[in-house]
Amino acid sequence: MKALYNAYRVLATVVGLSIITLVVVGVPLKYAHDWWPNFWPGFLQVGESGQRLGTNINLYLGTAHGFIYMVFVLVALMLALKARWQMGFTAITLLSGTIPFVSFWAERRAIRRVRAEFPEVSAR
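-> structure tokens emitted (124 positions)
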């Protein structure tokens, strides 16, 4: 149980940070030329350094985030089965991992529940 607990905590944090980076940094840099065509000429235009950076963030971090999210879902499901979470609690926890910033709330909520039901997992 402790290994699942620790894996869940790490994966939830990584998934949360990666989706925030994608939504707050990658997507705006990649598509800023469509939204604000004259905002930062020479940096955010098509083919320029800012737009290329956004494209690369979306490509590489987006791909990594997808794979990490799949592992997160498996670990969260295993933890849910082991901790005997209800279907609704499990679904909210998994779906919240797809929403920037909300993923941290869901992780905290799940961790609080595991600690309350299994105090030995958080003992050092």
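Residues 4 and 20 are 24 Å apart (CA to CA).
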